[in-house]
Amino acid sequence: MTKISRRLFLKKAVAGLAVMAVSPSLLTSCDEAEETNRKIRKLAPLAGNYDVVVVGGGPAGFIAAIAAARQGAKTAIIERYGFFGGMATIGYVAPISVFALKNELVIGGIPWEFVKRLEQMGGAFIEWPKANIDFDIELYKLCCQRMILEAGVDIYTHSSMVGCEMSGKSIDSVIIENKNGLETLTSKVFIDCTGDGDLAHMADVPMQPNPDGEVQPSSFCFILSGVDTDSELLNKCMYHNGINGPSQCRPVREKLLAMKEAGVDLPDFGGPWFNNVMHKGSVAVNITRRAADSTDNRNFSAVECQLREDIFTFARVLKENFKEFKDCYVSSTAPQAGIRESRRIVGVHTVTADEYVNTFHYEDSISRGIHPIDIHASKGTHQTRIDLTRPAYVPYRALIAPEYPNLLVAGRCISTDRQALASLRVMASCMGTGQAAGAAAAQCVAKGCAVQDVDTAALVATLKEWGAVL
Ligand SMILES: Cc1cc2nc3c(=O)[nH]c(=O)nc-3n(C[C@H](O)[C@H](O)[C@H](O)COP(=O)(O)OP(=O)(O)OC[C@H]3O[C@@H](n4cnc5c(N)ncnc54)[C@H](O)[C@@H]3O)c2cc1C
């Protein structure tokens, strides 16, 4: 009897399909394996067979998919919302930070091509010298979708990845759930760009320890309209280029702190930041904050309800206390509360704060970062910042886990400590690791090799050809 270990992980229970959730099962005979296979395929029919499947269509994911497809890999992207952009479009997080240091690009290639394309569409304003990118949320979605489709990527939107099938440590397929029911996508290589490391978690990749349980808070961003965006107050803080003053709106912060001090019952807050959305009278507001665990459905749902209350509390306080906001109203809340920190894999190499701030250059450096290390307190109103003097590096080894031959990760869930993540989590940096993961995945497909055997010199050469600044 042949001994095989084929496992199905379906960590989400689907009503009426409990029979399918045999997870994790260790099968010992071909007959049993075939029978289980037959059941799985009946309940989750094969929808596509790919070279590269990218899970998550945020800043890391959509760039990864474009990068892989442009290298000739048959690529699919799975996204649970009906549009791409991740936190930029589902969290109203702005601006895209940071592409440059003193007018010199630090992150180039496809991420920068996206910015220039969005600018041409009238949807981006580049704030030099740091190249923070203010953007129009709707044009961001359109630009993403155009570039993904032009690259020839198959899209599976409105589709949540809910499980995976494995042979040992190799991922055979992912199971998605959408209006068609459950479906299966097989692939040679998978890239986890879910932010929360959902696929890596389902595949049982070890995650970074978090002994004190501290994570950066969630913030529920929203669009406030009817704001006097021509006023001096807003003009001083709506931009992040450091020219007009700090982006954190100090006069509003001081007033809110004084109110709290005087005993007014206000929730904790961060900033606040009033970010340019390229429409006169409207700003994206980042002010609310509460500790939340985005990987626990009940906890996250409950905190999101509290944060929604906080949005309206702060909108009222702004309206009542500042002439610039006297006519303001909440015109839109983001599709979901924003997430700054959750799971990160234990990769072949973990980027530490020490390496990061000291600009450690690795042989396999594949991307950069220049945003400050920026840690928001999960409780209270403060934030710790360490500015970088030189752009830091990210090694390829932070995108792969030992022993998992066909899994890459990119974006917020790469292998870093908490401090290094607090810089690398920003969207330009996530796009940079996405670009590298997509190129590496295509190389694995072309060479038929494991992600651990990627020729990093060739990978770096490809990335440089595209314009990456390494
Ligand atoms: C309040 C707040 C303020 C911030 N401020 C800034 C800032 O000013 N500048 C900046 O650059 N960055 C900022 N950030 C950080 C930045 O937005 C995120 O770290 C970044 O977007 C992470 O990119 P990502 O691609 O890794 O993940 P995400 O942007 O989270 O994208 C992940 C995507 O995967 C999808 N997905 C997740 N799970 C599944 C699944 N199981 N199946 C299918 N799809 C799935 C999601 O819907 C999403 O589209 C901020 C974050 C927050 C929360």
Level of helix content?
Answer: 25-40%
Structural class of the helices, strands and pairings? Answer: alpha+beta
| Global outline | globular
The distinct ligands, each listed once, are: flavin-adenine dinucleotide
Say which CATH homologous superfamily of the largest domain is assigned: FAD/NAD(P)-binding domain
Largest sheet: 8 strands, mixed
Proportion of beta-strand residues:
15-25%
Which helices and strands occur, and which strands form pairs?
Elements: E1 6-10, H1 30-43, E2 46-55, H2 59-70, E3 75-78, H3 87-90, E4 100-101, E5 104-105, H4 110-120, E6 124-127, E7 132-135, H5 137-150, E8 154-156, E9 160-167, E10 170-178, E11 181-192, H6 198-202, E12 222-225, H7 232-237, H8 250-261, E13 269-276, E14 283-288, H9 297-321, E15 329-333, H10 353-357, E16 365-369, E17 373-376, E18 383-386, E19 392-395, E20 407-409, H11 418-424, H12 427-447, H13 456-466
Parallel strand pairs: 2-3, 2-11, 3-8, 11-20
Antiparallel strand pairs: 1-9, 4-5, 6-7, 9-10, 10-11, 12-14, 12-15, 13-14, 16-19, 17-18
Helix pairs in contact: 2-12, 12-13
In short:
The chain has 470 residues and is of the alpha+beta class.
Textual characterization of the structure:
The protein has 13 helices and 20 strands. The protein is α+β, with helices and mostly antiparallel strands. It has three domains: 6-43, no CATH class; 51-211 and 342-466, FAD/NAD(P)-binding domain (3-Layer(bba) Sandwich), CATH 3.50.50; 222-333, no CATH class. Strands 1, 2, 3, 8, 9, 10, 11 and 20 form an eight-stranded mixed β-sheet that branches. A hairpin with a 2-residue loop joins strand 10 (170-178) and strand 11. The radius of gyration is 22 Å and the shape is globular. Mean pLDDT is 93; it is low at 1-6 and 11-27. Bound molecules: flavin-adenine dinucleotide. The site of flavin-adenine dinucleotide has 38 residues, from helix 2, helix 3, strand 9 and helix 12.
